[in-house]
Amino acid sequence: MSDRRPAGRFLDAAIDLLHRVRDEEAASVEAAGTLLADTVEQGGRLFAFGAGHSSLPAQDIVYRAGGLALMNLLTVPGAIGVDVMPATLGSALERVDGLASAVLDSSPVREGDALVIISLSGRNALPVEMAMNARALGVRVIGVTSVAYATETRSRHASGTFLKDHCDIVLDSKIAVGDAELTLDTVPAPFAPASTVVTAALLQAVMATTAASLADRGIEPPLLRSGNVDGGHDWNGRVLEQYHDRIFYRH
Hints:
five-stranded parallel sheet, 5 strands, 41% helix
């Protein structure tokens, strides 16, 4: 019998969503992992971007024990997490036209690289323009978003398009519009968001696929180990040195 307490209900909802993305997004996860492996094999660099809370899953795959050393965070000052005061400024920056172009122009992203863009709604100017401009540069784009927003909300970009419309591969997180899994008669608004849990899991599934794909080709995946296990620092030092020209979080 399911636990009907709020904590149990939330965990059940998150587990159900994870089952859905496992079953319904398997082909897209495989394609995304293969695309990243292709990029690594061809000498390209890997980047991840997300604004606001969508930055949390992006940060989770950068400089991560058990993760790919080549994944770099593409940052937009004031839009990464809630690191700006007031926090509402970050939300406002997501709607600024032209910001994505300025960020890309001053970043190391170049033709032949791959960029993972995470945006739950996919409707704001920043992620839409980031995808559009990156592809114009010859960068392959993987979008992680809730496709439901494209049918239930309006785009905030002048083109009327969403992130999903400008990606080589789209991963659908299946999150319902509003990102709140629970309701109670005694609580005036829906609550308990699951997008971070699901999106982080989706991206780790992609990273696992990338590592396995590289190994299948006879290429040792450039993985980091925990610095809290014996030999971890030495291992990581060798990996970081070997791939120093494709790693930007050390500079």
